[in-house]
User: Fold this.
Amino acid sequence: MKRCAITMNVNKRYRIQSLDIARGLAVLGILLVNMRFYSTSLQAIQWQVELWPSWWDQVVTALLRLFVEGKFLAIFALLFGYGMVMSYQRAIEAGVRFVPMYTRRLLILAVFGLIHGLLVWYGDILLHYALLGFLLLFFRKCAPKTLYTCALLLLASVPALLLLQGNPSADLNSNEEFQAWLEQAIALDTTIYGSGDYRVILQKRVEDWISSTLNQVMFYPQILGLFLLGAGLAKQRILHEVGTTGRSLLRIAAVSGVMGIGITLIPLVWHGTESNGVQEALRVLIGAPAMGLFYLIVLTIALGNKRWQRILRPLGDVGRLALTNYLGQSLLCTLIFYGYGLGWFGKVGPLVGTLIAVVIFGVQLAVSRMWLRRFHMGPLEWLWRTGTYLSAPPMRRADRSITT
Assistant:
């Protein structure tokens, strides 16, 4: 009975509109960034090879780097930590043992991540979230001050290490042998992903998944730091009730906005090839999370206005189906770009890729709205909750009324 009660409460009592809308916005931002990874060689991305020199592609790339890249992944991570605290508080109120329940939740997420990363697209983040979620469990009882302190230490650790390391790619950029190898690697990626069948692409995908996973491990401290920051916000109910936390929201927005915008604009005033590594470390690892927090807080403040609630409400539908939409994006985009689909890999630049992303997200807005008219949650969300609570929640709406 307790499991059934907490499952029902997830749908009714504990839904916070601002969090659903923030998840929906994050799903859009992540898609905009991931389009490059769906359609371009991983080697070209990792070594920052310019494949689309036209001015319109350059403008789109610059805009994505300034306003999108890293910001929405940060929001996703913040919301993951926020959601853990909410789940913990729900479990306490319902008298349910939290650790076994949340362990099941993380294990199911890990399975989703492995299926996604190995069979669909190598750039999965779900497995990493699941693994770090086990570390997050140890912080569930911590006070906000402890969470914030640990978060800041973790967020500062990776930039510090990279700054000490310097910019090793500078020497490789002038190495002719390396440049020849890089050109061949990019051409091979384009051939395999653009014209290979599923079996050939699967082998390459596994190789890129291993490479991507090992690279992602380096940034585990940053991801865990964002989890803890989100958990601290949840402990203080910062995003729960705008009316009672307005001043706190404004202070957080001011600090994160000044920090994020300032660091993001550093490359415009700090020139020189020897400073490129420092710029990237500051922009990606400090500026992007700060901007992500700024976006999240500004969004929450805006939702205190009923007009903005009406405008942004469709994002909440996407956010309620965030897992289904995230994996659906990978499935659809690989069918567009890979050889067993349309084979557009390597043929689409940033401008066209962004337009495709906007169209896909528009479709997801419409489909999510129609789906929620008939069902309480998405199909993958249903599987996730069924395994988490060991009780199947109701799926179909009896009256098929419009969700609000």
Q: What stands out?
A: The CA atoms of residues 132 and 224 lie 6 Å apart. DSSP finds 19 helices and no strands in the chain.
